Sequence to fold (174 residues):
Amino acid sequence: MPRDFPALPGLYQALFLYFEPVSTISPAFLAWFFPGAAWFHHELIPIGTSSGPLDARTTMAIWQLGNCYMLLGLISSFVFRAIRDALPNNPEAQERILGASMTALALADTNSVTASWIGLPDELRYSFGAWNPMTHGNITFTVFLCCMRLAWFAGIGRTRYYYGRASSKSQKVV
Fold:
């Protein structure tokens, strides 16, 4: 039975409490187990050819990248649920803590998209049809998530409890 989560309602709840954690935890398993680090590495840039097995350093770097994906998914999943469960009757506090997390995630989205875009070969940057699912996940889907975070901050489709509301301090007469 879904619990009331006023600071993260409807589509935002479905996206950030369920879909995003799954979509960020899944790449960790792809890199660690199957199809594995070499596949993951070769999919990062859609050039159609693989360059063979990876050296130990590259494999370790891919596994650590998988760990970062796992961390992002776990933070979204566990922290957002903890906010909902610990502060069920305090939507202002829910929103303040969610806002801090959303800010960090939006900054990470921006950095990730920028690094992925710059890392693409020049001939692929504007050839969206040539991108593989990994590239679309790293760029297209991450841009979508960042836009949804910005929509959340703007209060689109939800009631605002903290962000965008006049603070009680600014309403006091000095």
Summary: The chain has one domain: 10-159.
